[in-house]
């Protein structure tokens, strides 16, 4: 359904919203109806919209391009709001040079070795876009498609349904994959992401979200003093192309041990082959809890300077922790700051990288008649 501006304003007035909604932004203290505004146009003229929603003290802006979280604002311990996710203020930069800022990732979050896998005796060649490997769905992954977005309010929740259908053979993947992602802001300000997908042919799926977090605010400097705890005794060591060796190695005694809270920067310069391969941390933690029916808490991130915290709960077995190693001072954020190495980190809930080629990893196969369902919940505090 196309929600036009008149409907939004009428709805806002009926809900007793503050006049701020008329300016195209839903505010935390105002009404709860998501508001749509034009963000820009693709080269072919396709209009890209920005959806603003707010609930429980969290303010979110989502683009129809890539389902991108363009901005996520939360308060610090003094109630001061900052956008804690890296991004751009224009569609051109998202199209030309984004390193997946805030985007939905599919069909396969993370790497598949040589872009190849076999399923039911058939071999598939995927689009290769990271050296010899396929990363985040290939050259034109879900992050580079326009999603259909429908707003909703349900009880005390506010949110968006995002739809994208990937045709059979897209980027080399078998099966028509119908994807629905639900972004919900709860009355407590949690940002919940529910992923669903169905296929008409056996395929592999591994959906995730690629928000670059900096809890002190995007453009405020490095995240090396953020404190992090991850409930995982093992991780997946990689080769020089960042493909897992297949081993689930113990984190004990390595820079990858985040079972006790430590700063991101504490061990990041320790001489270690894995850190050399990743140019820092770019690894998947095998979460102690494994796959769960309900989201369970797996990681806590805290910025001591602002007091802002992020807790992640997920149904997924893995967490890719990427310390922003490839940010190289060539991108400029919406606040005008240059993004440099380590200015943000990603915590991508997912199955392990290269699972289609690793028999011992939890399976990422989805068959006709099955529904892929995973959930990740982000809880904020200060
Ligand atoms: C993921 C990968 C990283 C990098 C970023 C995007 O997190 O694991 O190696 O490709 O995406 O730059």
Question: What would your notes on this structure say?
Answer:
There is one protein chain. With 382 residues, the chain is mainly β. The chain has a domain at 227-365: Distorted Sandwich (Beta-galactosidase, Chain A, domain 5). It is built from three helices and 29 strands. It has helices at residues 5-14, 91-97, 273-278, and strands at 35-41, 47-55, 58-63, 69-75, 81-83, 103-105, 111-112, 116-119, 122-125, 134-135, 148-154, 157-166, 177-185, 191-199, 203-204, 208-210, 227-230, 234-236, 249-250, 262-263, 282-286, 296-302, 309-314, 318-322, 331-332, 338-339, 346-350, 365-366, 372-381. The strands form eight sheets. The protein has a nine-stranded antiparallel β-sheet with strand order 11-12-13-14-29-23-22-17-20, with no helix packed on it. The longest helix is centred in the first third of the chain and has 10 residues, at 5-14. The chain is globular. The relative contact order is 0.15. Mean pLDDT is 93; it is low at 1-30. Bound molecules: alpha-D-galactopyranose. Alpha-D-galactopyranose binds at residues 99-100, 110, 135, 242, 282, 320, 322, 326, 346.
């Amino acid at each position: 359904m196309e929600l036009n501006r008149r409907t939004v304003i009428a709805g806002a007035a009926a809900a007793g919203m503050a006049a701020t909604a008329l300016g195209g932004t839903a505010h935390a203290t105002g009404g709860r109806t998501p508001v749509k505004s034009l963000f820009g146009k693709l080269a072919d003229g396709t209009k890209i919209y920005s959806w603003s929603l707010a609930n429980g003290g969290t303010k979110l802006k989502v683009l129809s391009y890539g389902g991108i979280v363009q901005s996520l604002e939360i308060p610090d311990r003094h109630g001061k709001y900052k956008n804690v996710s890296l991004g751009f203020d224009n569609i051109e930069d998202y199209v030309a040079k984004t390193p997946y800022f805030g985007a939905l990732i599919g069909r396969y979050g993370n790497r598949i070795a040589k872009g190849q896998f076999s399923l039911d005796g058939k071999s598939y060649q995927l689009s290769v876009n990271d050296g010899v490997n396929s990363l985040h769905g290939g050259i034109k992954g879900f992050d580079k498609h326009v999603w259909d977005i429908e707003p909703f309010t349900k009880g005390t929740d506010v949110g968006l349904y995002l739809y994208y259908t990937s045709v059979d053979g897209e980027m080399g993947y078998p099966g028509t994959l119908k994807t629905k992602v639900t972004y919900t802001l709860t009355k407590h300000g949690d940002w919940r992401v529910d992923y669903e997908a169905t296929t008409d042919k056996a395929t592999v799926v591994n959906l995730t979200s690629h928000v670059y977090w900096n809890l002190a605010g995007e453009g405020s400097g490095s995240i090396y003093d953020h404190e992090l705890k991850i409930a995982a005794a093992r991780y997946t060591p990689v080769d020089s192309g960042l493909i897992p060796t297949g081993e689930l190695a113990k984190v004990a005694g390595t820079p990858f041990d985040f079972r006790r809270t430590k700063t991101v920067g504490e061990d990041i310069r320790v001489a270690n082959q894995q850190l050399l391969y990743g140019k820092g941390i770019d690894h998947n933690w095998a979460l102690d809890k494994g796959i769960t029916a309900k989201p369970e808490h797996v990681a806590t991130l805290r910025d001591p300077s602002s007091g802002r915290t992020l807790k992640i709960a997920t149904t997924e077995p893995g967490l890719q922790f990427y310390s922003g190693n490839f940010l190289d001072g060539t991108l400029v954020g919406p606040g005008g700051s240059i993004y440099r190495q380590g200015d943000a980190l990603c915590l991508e809930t997912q199955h392990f990288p290269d699972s289609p080629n690793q028999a011992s990893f939890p399976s990422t196969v989805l068959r006709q008649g099955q529904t892929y369902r995973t959930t990740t919940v982000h809880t904020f505090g200060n």
